[in-house]
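Quick illustration for those who missed Monday's session on complexes.
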Amino acid sequence: MCGIMAYIGGRDTVEVLLEGLRRLEYRGYDSAGVAVSVDGKIELVRSKGKIANLAALLEGNKPEGRSGIAHTRWATHGPPSTKNAHPHPDCEGHLAVVHNGIIENYLELREQLEAEGHTFRSETDTETLAHLFEKYYDGDLEKAVRRGLKEVKGSYAVVAMSDREPGLLVAARQYSPLIVGLGEKKGENFVASDPSAIIAYTRQAYLIDNGEMVMLRADGVQVKTLSGKPVKKPVFHIEWDAEMAEKGGHKHFMIKEIFEQPHALRQTIGDRIVGREMALKLEGLGLSDGYLRRVKKIAVIACGTASYAGMAGQYAIEKVCGVPVIVDVASELQHRECVFDKNTLGIAISQSGETADTLQAMRMAHRQGAKLLAITNAIGSSVARESDGLLYIHAGPEIGVASTKAYTSQILAMLLFCVHLGRVREAVTPRVARRLLRGIKQLPDLAERTLEQADHIKKLAKKHQHIMRYLYLGRGAHYCSAMEGALKIKEIAYLDAEGYAAGEMKHGPLALVTEEVAVLSAVVEGPQYEKALGNLQEIRARGGKVIAVANENDEEIAKYADDVIPIPKTEEVLSPVLAGIPMQLYAYYVADLWNREIDQPRNLAKSVTVE
Ligand code: G6P
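Prediction with 6-O-phosphono-alpha-D-glucopyranose bound:
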């Protein structure tokens, strides 16, 4: 949510900033801007809309300097407009700041600063920072930022520059991600909100922690605490390479990422399943067997797609291990009393590892004595760092705003954990555990086979192009598939879609079924198969179209559905990994027929770092 890029060094500064912003655009894209230090002055160029608008403005009119800051915005305070775009200057334009996060006491600070004579030009909370730093600036930017931030409540990743110190950028972090890129070429350094902005230039980085400040110069980087104590940071090596974050010939990142799923699933399995006995080597898990035996309840902490991956895990863990699991979205969970205690394990699932609600709920869980396991894609992210144990999904960079490969890899990571938990608690026999793990090992190949349905699904999308309203139904293991399928088509095709537990149909949604409605449902073999068929009959009896995702050997299903998308058969608890794929493809092809901005759907952002 919002992206920051800052650079100091000998390259074409505006080009580096724009390149960084383009790679961050998935985080927010309603306005953008750059500020560059040119001959003792700060030149500011900002524009409403996407980075392309900003680039067009800069064409032939590029400020040339050796340091600059840049931002792509996802509006929180004040609508998208040029004046609300970052960077924000102080009164006289001697200072400029970019900021991610929310300054909670900005109204109070703004009133105070206005009373002191500062003139505000935007409706943002961020502009307060520019004026605060101006107030305390006496020729030392580091001091001004430190002093100013003392008065600030809320979350921030901020970078500030001053025309009087063109060789310096000062950054600080409190609850919003910030990373320093250490120039591989001598004489340059970078600051960004996210590694994808800098991987084209360097893979050596410092991960900045809450309460830390960075003084960035072309020839060196100093990290201190907000109170001024020097901090020695280890150099962190970013493993992703720049190519992994390119479209690689695909029309959209989303479809590229859908097709990357077999590889992503292989990466999630990695070398975690070892030998003939299929021992599980979950390095970093950080939760002792003794603790796992004592766990009485598990609570999944997640938002959006990640919470639906949690639902798949819930079904598997309850069925295989007999441990109760609750799943609620993190924005609700953080306000629910008596969910966590020392016998509750919180499992935080997050692709980006920076989702604000997830982090708040995690902190609440910790305060109440629970331990936390993180399932995330983002190495060194806040979710990873604030947990007691870790399972990285290693799915590689996911750029499309709508999550795809992270979803299936998150489910797979939950399944690995589920088998481990079952073994430790002796809830599964060694034979059943091995059978599940054999099934898990086959999932990447089966995902490949599922992807062979892409052309068939594309045709179905065309056939049903006129449909404006969808219902997604599922039971048991596939309640999550219904929720995730509906979310996907809402997010990227902007069509009305509801995800529902199929058994609830009679309690309301059946009233929506007409000939203009299509129902997508994953109906795989398992204890609820017959009941799921019954639901399809109810829909067809009322004229609704049925598209069923069903096992390839299912000969019955054609009698109950208008169209069938076959997926390979696997254990019921593993099958959400496969059923997720046709849901993604269907939403993608429908959205493409509608010419939607698939990778950057309106009003959404990839990583929601504000509550
Ligand atoms: C946003 C994204 C979703 C994602 C959700 C949770 O809404 O658009 O794709 O599922 O955030 O994000 P996380 O990074 O925590 O998985």
